[in-house]
Design brief:
Strand content: 25-35%
Helix content: 25-40%
CATH class of the largest domain: Alpha Beta
CATH topology of the largest domain: Rossmann fold
Length: 245
Amino acid sequence: MAAPVQPLAALPESLDAAEAAPLLCAGITTFNALRHSGAVPGDLVAIQGIGVLGHLGIQFANKFGYRAVAIGRGAENARLAKKLGAAEYIDSKATNAAQELKKMGGARVILATAPSSKAMSELVDGLGPNGALVVVGASMDPIEVSPIQLIIGRRDIQGWASGIPSDSEDTLRFSELTGVRPMIEKYPLAKTAEGYARMISESGIPRGIAYVTSSEKCRWRITRSDRFDVLTGWFASGKLSSLSV
């Protein structure tokens, strides 16, 4: 296989390819967004959502030395949030998450990973002085905020996409050293349908993510978003095949 050197990222030998794949997508997005957010160790950083992005964001926030607070919907997510490294868990179904953050002193950063503009809008008042709402969860609906909400406390709202190959390598190396890992499940190629069904059910793994492997020559990754599902295959020949389903 021949490829331009500029977009390539070196994969640490100790990382399994199936674990590295989500780190090169949701991983780099949350890692890069947090390290460029302006937060420093000890700051209160809230992670909204405990899905594919969120479950990695919580781990990175913890490893960066932030006071990581996870925000989810339902008391059943508390145990997972704590396991991932959250110091506190806020159930937004049972309480006003912004008010809970204010009781803690206000968040320096809220990393919005769940693609719900309504949920993001409701968190703005939970920002502390000079706090920033950093949006990585894509949604087509507008975030609603009044000028006075931003003026008081000098608050910011910003988006973050992903990064460049060197950021990918930084994400992989940091994850290798600190033990940050995605939650994945593997299925043989013959059980692709079973893996896909489990992904859709979102049972046991954040927002549904499954890996289907066959041999050293082919590895398939299945990922899900709220708007579409994509089945992508990487082949040893270097050919990339993608199918929307």
